[in-house]
């Protein structure tokens, strides 16, 4: 049934112009997307590709280490423009699919091990409506997300249903405000036997584009969350939260850019911006430093990205942990279309009252791309990945995980996979 709903959605957007003569005259339908998919095998028995992630780490290094098919298809259209005032209205949508790389026809029955579909975005934007350069929006969207590409770590991601206004010129920068709402399944049954929902309203303020130095800009973020529940729910909490974000972007560094982010989260959003936990303690805290460098010198065949992450999780009760991650992916182009990459990644998780977990991973890959450069896509890859971990990492891994004794490598604390993958965005 999920598949049957996708085609009407696409057709509705594509035919939006039929509602008025101006629609078809304004702009064509925009089609964007992302995909990754491949095939792989592990060294022990030739089974399916195994992927390596440390328990407690917020991400894993991606190259030769993604065991799923994932795709996003985005359709958008400017559906109205007022020729007199210049006002424009736009509709955007995004459908995502994720599946294990197990067989040629995926089951969409709802089984967690099978393919899953989701409507990730569906929102409307209005601009040139008498508010200067400001834009107003409402709906469900990826909201001004920031990530590190080589380990797919979205360190600032407040996405979901909401509404807001952005691009307000305040002189020193651009101000944005978003009202975000999460309705959370508490996961806990109250004394009346009902599974109550807890509402979490969020108020996200951002001031971006603050000039600090030539090529450098600062972004400041303040995020308030307020949780509420009905009076009949006497078991679940309604914890609020707050977060502060400071991010500096420096363009033109070795032909690329450098990003430094400092973050502090407390209460219901100590664990996640997009998925707040109203049952958290109000004094739960998380501190994070993210440093990412992407280089691509003009005229050079070398490019790449490096990252360093330090994150401390400090629960009000119980043990916390410190996650440290260092990774590097240099690439070299032999010709315009052929190249190679070597990705090195190291993750360490130090729980307060347990042994330190460690995971090191290295991938060598042969690349086929449309052009030279780190961001050139689509890209075809032939890879070999080797990982090594310690006994503490093995003991903390989940059942069936590649690092676990119940995984494909058994009692070993190392493993290797080979495979091929395609990645594209457009």
At the fold tier of CATH, the topology name is Maltoporin, Chain A
User: What is Rg?
Assistant: 23 Å
Strand proportion, as a percent range, falls in over 45%
Average the pLDDT over all residues and give the rounded result.
91
Q: Segments where pLDDT lies below 50 for 5+ residues?
A: 1-21
The total beta strand count reads 20
Overall shape: it is globular
Straight-line distance between termini: 28 Å
CATH top level class name: Mainly Beta
Number of helices: 3
Estimated helix fraction: under 10%
Major sheet, described briefly? 18 strands, antiparallel, barrel
Structural class by sheet pairing and helices:
mainly beta
Number of domains: 1
Order of helices and strands: HHEEEEEEEEEEEEEEEEEEEHE
Signal peptide: 1-24
Family: Belongs to the porin LamB (TC 1.B.3) family.
Membrane topology: Multi-pass membrane protein
Keywords: Cell outer membrane, Ion transport, Membrane, Porin, Signal, Transmembrane, Transmembrane beta strand, Transport
Summarize the structure.
The chain is mainly beta.
List keywords for this structure.
two-stranded antiparallel ribbon, 3 helices
Task: Provide an overview of this structure.
This protein is mainly beta and 426 residues long. It has one domain (37-425): Beta Barrel (Maltoporin, Chain A), CATH 2.40.170.10. It contains three helices and 20 strands. The strands form two sheets. The protein has an 18-stranded antiparallel β-barrel. Strands 6-7 form a two-stranded antiparallel ribbon. The model is unreliable at 1-21 (pLDDT under 50). GO terms for molecular function: carbohydrate transmembrane transporter activity; porin activity. Keywords: Cell outer membrane, Ion transport, Membrane, Porin, Signal, Transmembrane, Transmembrane beta strand, Transport. Belongs to the porin LamB (TC 1.B.3) family.
